[in-house]
């Protein structure tokens, strides 16, 4: 396994701190053809951001296969409407590829809006639409005028870039809604939470923290999202961006047009969760009561989870983990969270990190850590074995790699149903890591079927 050769064209996207080579991480480039990248496409990136808006219609303009990427692949819980769970497609076939699919799109939009009466509609362009040249924006404008609801094109043709380009396409579509709603009841101490998608109910936990602090949450973009909340998001006085790769684009657009500042935050792990809350409190320094409530909240929440974390640390001390997820900012938090429970990170990587992200990642990592950008299955397999990882933390596409290698696996991305953010989330995460690493099944698997 460790004899797997690395592709020469990818050498600068891999850095082994133990090797002593100069650090010059290449990133922000298209995936290498033939390397079977773990990275998703532009269309996928746009769906990640927009799908959690629960009272909007989501229509995929393209072949039916693209519509397979739906709510059930990337969960997003809703406290009310469930329209986002319906996956609609124009199901383009050979006839539309030859003669164009605009008539089919118009028909689908008008029928779906009449049937479901959504607050807004998002229309996702796929690869084939970019090739045949359908004017999706023109169809959206026509239907918007006729139906009197926002109909927003999402220019997410999969071949034109990376997953990060899909994030930008989604933010551009969202920005078409921001600034169109009423803001009269928004308090001076108010925020928008950007980049939280409520995969396992995290948005509800985070909102509760801020409400305990005395901070009004105007909108969550986009977990458990509502169109009307997005439309009035410009009334908040601060944007708090969690998934920086996905939502910094929107934060910058809102800062330029509406003058709303933004800060970056993470809610994974005790340290980063506390910092996020304190940073928001510091922004509202002219309201000292917010700081006082924050101190009480953090003190009580940490005290509630630390006894169990100490017990788990005693078992996991010295174990090793590999981390490969979508956003680099999440990797930072996971390194610190794993260190808190006694584990070392021997592999760290992301799909969408930039040069600054990887420089910060290198500073956080131990001396023998391998850092990867836009990895493929063979690279991940090689370094997981070479570095002796006891656990793999990733998403749905990394799970089979871990199981084939006889490793415990924790889903920190798409399919999980347990919240891993916040103080309670850190306890849930530690429990899951402990159960996964200490399960006796992995020794049985290795002895019976796995040979390095």
Automatic annotation (TrEMBL):
One of its GO terms (molecular function) is nitrogenase activity. InterPro entries: Nase/OxRdtase_comp1, Nase_comp1_CS, NifE, NifE-like. Pathway: Cofactor biosynthesis; Fe-Mo cofactor biosynthesis. Residues 41-433 form the Nitrogenase/oxidoreductase component domain. Pfam families: Oxidored_nitro (PF00148). Keywords: Nitrogen fixation. One of its GO terms (biological process) is protein-containing complex assembly. Signal peptide: none annotated. This protein may play a role in the biosynthesis of the prosthetic group of nitrogenase (FeMo cofactor). Belongs to the NifD/NifK/NifE/NifN family. This is Nitrogenase iron-molybdenum cofactor biosynthesis protein NifE. The gene is nifE.
């Amino acid at each position: 396994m460790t004899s797997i050769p690395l592709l020469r064209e990818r050498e600068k996207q891999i850095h082994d701190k133990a090797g002593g080579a100069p650090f010059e991480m290449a990133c922000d480039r298209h995936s290498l053809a033939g390397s079977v990248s773990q990275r998703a496409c532009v269309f996928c990136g746009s769906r990640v951001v927009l799908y959690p808006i629960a009272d909007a219609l989501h229509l995929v303009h393209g072949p039916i296969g693209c519509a397979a990427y739906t709510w059930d692949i990337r969960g997003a819980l809703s406290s009310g409407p469930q329209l986002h769970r319906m996956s609609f497609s124009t199901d383009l076939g050979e006839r539309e590829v030859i003669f164009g699919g605009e008539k089919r799109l118009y028909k689908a939009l008008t029928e779906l809006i009449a049937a479901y009466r959504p607050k807004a509609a998002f229309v996702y362009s796929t690869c084939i639409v970019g090739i045949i040249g359908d004017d999706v924006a023109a169809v959206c404008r026509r239907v918007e005028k006729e139906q009197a609801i926002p109909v927003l094109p999402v220019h997410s043709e999969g071949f034109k870039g990376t997953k990060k380009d899909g994030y930008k396409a989604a933010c551009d579509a969202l920005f078409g809604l921001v600034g169109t709603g009423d803001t009269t009841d928004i308090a001076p101490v108010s925020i928008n939470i950007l980049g939280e998608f409520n995969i396992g109910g995290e948005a509800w936990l985070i909102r509760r923290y801020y409400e305990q602090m005395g901070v009004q949450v105007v909108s969550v973009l986009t977990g458990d999202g509502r169109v009307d909340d997005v439309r009035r998001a410009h009334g908040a006085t601060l944007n708090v961006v969690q998934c920086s790769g996905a939502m910094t684009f929107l934060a910058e657009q809102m800062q330029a047009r509406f003058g709303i500042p933004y800060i970056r935050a993470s809610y994974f792990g005790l340290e980063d969760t506390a910092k996020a809350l304190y940073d928001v409190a510091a922004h509202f320094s002219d309201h000292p009561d917010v700081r006082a409530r924050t101190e009480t909240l953090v003190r009580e929440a940490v005290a509630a989870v630390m006894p169990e974390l100490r017990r788990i640390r005693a078992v996991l001390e010295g174990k090793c983990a590999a981390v490969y997820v979508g956003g680099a900012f999440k990797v930072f938090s996971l390194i610190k969270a794993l260190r808190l429970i006694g584990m070392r990170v021997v592999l760290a990587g992301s799909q969408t990190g930039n040069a600054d992200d990887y420089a910060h990642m290198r500073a956080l990592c131990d001396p023998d850590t391998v850092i990867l950008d836009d990895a493929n299955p063979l690279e991940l397999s090689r370094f997981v074995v070479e570095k002796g990882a006891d656990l793999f933390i990733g998403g749905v596409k990394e799970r089979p790699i871990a199981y084939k290698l006889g490793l415990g696996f924790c889903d920190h991305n798409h399919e999980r149903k347990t919240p891993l953010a916040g103080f309670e989330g850190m306890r849930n995460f530690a429990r899951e890591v402990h159960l996964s690493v200490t399960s006796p099944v992995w020794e049985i698997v290795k002895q019976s079927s796995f040979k390095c």
